[in-house]
């Protein structure tokens, strides 16, 4: 008997025997539900035998036989009623546990999200792909399916999604393309560091989604609930089914604020801020201007995260302001990094370390923020240094800039498209899915080992567009991605260390060293960040104009999968 937990209230298993009942009772279960009809198998004990044993040990029993492969809507409704009535936790069984898991999934469809249901059943070892439309439809079998159908469907209207839509349209204008995204506003997220440093105004980083969708591209303002890649279908909230010939998946990633205990309750007050949110970046600048003495903490969670340099950019710009105001010597700066290095590409570290020394900042490596108490102005870090036992450290603060833990979105992590870690599983050169040949992914959500930056998406979009057009023509992939990412490290107001690199930390500068030396802070790189890149983003990248982003052709030996 292998018991699998679906929720705190229900565990399931395959067929049990009367001898198993005592163990079930000893484990604390208070009721037993049988979802397997008597006589289904020749080696199957009858329900009456199980029920008699269960009553001996004080378990409440219910018999709800369901035919294998034929779970009806009314069966799910009845299972939901039984779960309401019986004492918990309950134990349910059938031949393998799948029927029990299916009944639970459908009965919870109006209480939990599709992603939560799929995550719970997947963790227990059950695949609910066959009933995902019913789950999305509130647990009921859909009767009306006015399916939409497109040549290319793009999940996500962020930098990657809009850019690849525009790049596709520029190559083949008659393509029927749909972008699926529920958001009304599109944000230029690289600008939020500058907002937090008092350089940009928030409004400079936001435009309406409708104004940016390329001409001729359909915008489906909805959230994705699940994928059916075997049927070339995407299921939207409300169970609308969208069909595609080719699919591009780029919804970005999820900022997991709840993973730090107490963080959500205190964001935006008590000196707790983050440039990772549009509405909080101005508060960062307010705090920086107001701090004259005390301790300022800047945190970085475990990788991967969106723009790995952003947490320390906030620190540098803040420290530079305090230096210019003449109060730096009265401020105790700490950079608490869950990792063990200042920056992942070693060539840029010497220039950054000079600024760490200039600002007198403390580098606290292997410090992972796990809890925060805003009113008490205290933060707790789990510190796990190599070859040392983990310890929890308390630090007080006057200001703390938090970079939240980050994961793939829930609906991606529980989907057939994800790898074991929850990211979309692609070939790192062609950005094509490793299992489904008509699916591509780019941006923050895919699992290629590159930096998750807008600059990376700018290079990836033409690669995906080229390879989709080649696929439409019946050709093999023609373009490959070299892992390019860029991180303009704002080390002081007016100077930037322009880090540009690809797979394996290979340096990939866009400009000759006599013009911009990426290993040193330069004013020209600051000019690029402040005045040139924003209009390039809005007026070129999102309109299919691929400045400095021409796709590299596939070589005889493209980059291997990792």
TrEMBL record:
User: Matching SUPFAM superfamilies, A to Z?
Assistant: FAD/NAD(P)-binding domain
Q: Which cofactor does it need?
A: FAD
* InterPro entries attached to this UniProt entry: BLH_phosphatase-like (IPR005939), FAD/NAD-bd_sf (IPR036188), FAD/NAD-binding_dom (IPR023753), Prot-tyrosine_phosphatase-like (IPR029021), Sulphide_quinone_reductase (IPR015904)
For the keyword Transit peptide, the answer is yes
Cite the entry's keywords alphabetically.
FAD, Flavoprotein, Oxidoreductase, Quinone, Transit peptide
Q: Where is the Beta-lactamase hydrolase-like protein phosphatase-like domain?
A: 4-109
The UniProt GO MF terms for this protein read: FAD binding; hydrolase activity; quinone binding; sulfide:quinone oxidoreductase activity
Q: Which domain of life is it from?
A: Bacteria
Instruction: Cite a single GO BP annotation.
Output: sulfide oxidation, using sulfide:quinone oxidoreductase
Where would I find the FAD/NAD(P)-binding domain in this sequence?
150-268
Protein name, UniProt field: NAD(FAD)-dependent dehydrogenase
**Naturally occurring in which organism (per UniProt):** Pseudovibrio exalbescens
């Amino acid at each position: 008997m292998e018991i699998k937990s679906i929720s705190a209230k229900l565990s399931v298993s395959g067929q049990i025997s009367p001898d198993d009942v005592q163990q079930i009772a000893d484990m604390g279960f208070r009721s037993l539900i049988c979802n397997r009809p008597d006589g289904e198998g020749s080696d199957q004990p009858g329900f009456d035998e199980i029920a008699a044993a269960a009553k001996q040990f004080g378990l409440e029993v219910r018999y709800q036989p369901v035919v294998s492969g034929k779970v009806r809507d009314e069966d799910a409704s009845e299972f939901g009623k039984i779960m309401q009535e019986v004492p918990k936790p309950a134990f349910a069984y059938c031949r393998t546990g799948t029927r029990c898991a299916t009944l639970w999934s459908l009965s919870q469809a109006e209480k939990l999200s599709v992603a939560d249901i799929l995550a719970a059943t997947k963790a227990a070892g059950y695949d609910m792909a066959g009933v995902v439309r019913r789950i999305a439809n509130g647990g009921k079998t859909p009767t009306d399916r006015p399916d939409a159908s497109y040549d290319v469907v793009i999940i996500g209207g962020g930098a990657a999604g809009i850019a690849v839509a525009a790049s596709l349209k520029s190559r083949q204008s008659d393509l029927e393309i749909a972008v699926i995204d529920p958001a009304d506003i599109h944000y230029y997220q690289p600008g939020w560091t500058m907002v937090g440093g008092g350089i940009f105004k928030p409004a400079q980083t936001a435009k309406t989604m409708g104004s940016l969708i390329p001409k001729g591209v359909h915008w489906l303002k909805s959230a994705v609930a699940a994928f059916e890649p075997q049927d070339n279908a995407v299921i939207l909230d409300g169970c609308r089914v969208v069909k595609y010939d080719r699919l591009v998946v780029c919804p970005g990633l999820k900022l997991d604020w709840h993973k730090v205990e107490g963080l959500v309750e205190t964001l935006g007050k008590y000196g707790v801020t983050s440039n990772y949110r549009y509405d909080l970046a101005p508060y960062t600048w307010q705090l920086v201007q107001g701090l004259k003495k005390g301790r300022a903490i800047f945190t970085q969670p475990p990788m991967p995260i969106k723009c790995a340099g952003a947490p320390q950019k906030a620190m540098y710009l803040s420290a530079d302001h305090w230096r210019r105001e003449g109060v730096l010597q009265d401020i105790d700066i700490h950079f608490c990094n869950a990792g063990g290095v200042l920056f992942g590409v070693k060539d840029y570290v010497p220039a950054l370390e000079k600024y760490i020394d200039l600002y007198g900042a403390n580098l606290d490596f292997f410090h992972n923020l796990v809890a925060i108490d805003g009113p008490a102005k205290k933060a707790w870090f789990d510190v796990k240094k190599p070859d040392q036992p983990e310890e929890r450290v308390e630090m007080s603060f006057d200001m703390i800039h938090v970079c939240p833990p980050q994961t793939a979105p829930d609906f991606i992590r529980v989907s057939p498209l994800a790898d074991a870690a929850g990211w979309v599983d692609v070939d790192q050169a062609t950005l094509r899915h490793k299992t489904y040949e008509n699916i591509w992914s780019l941006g923050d959500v895919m699992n290629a080992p590159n930096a998750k930056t807008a600059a990376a998406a700018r290079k990836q979009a033409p690669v995906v567009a080229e390879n989709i057009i080649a696929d439409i023509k019946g050709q093999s992939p023609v373009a490959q991605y070299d892992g390019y990412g860029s991180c303009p490290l704002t080390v002081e107001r007016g100077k930037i260390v322009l880090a540009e690199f690809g797979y394996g930390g290979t340096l990939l500068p866009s400009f000759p060293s006599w013009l911009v030396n990426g290993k040193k802070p330069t004013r020209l790189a600051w000019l690029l960040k402040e005045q040139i890149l924003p209009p390039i983003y809005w007026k070129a990248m999102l309109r299919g104009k691929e400045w400095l982003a021409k796709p590299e052709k596939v070589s005889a030996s493209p980059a291997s999968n990792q």
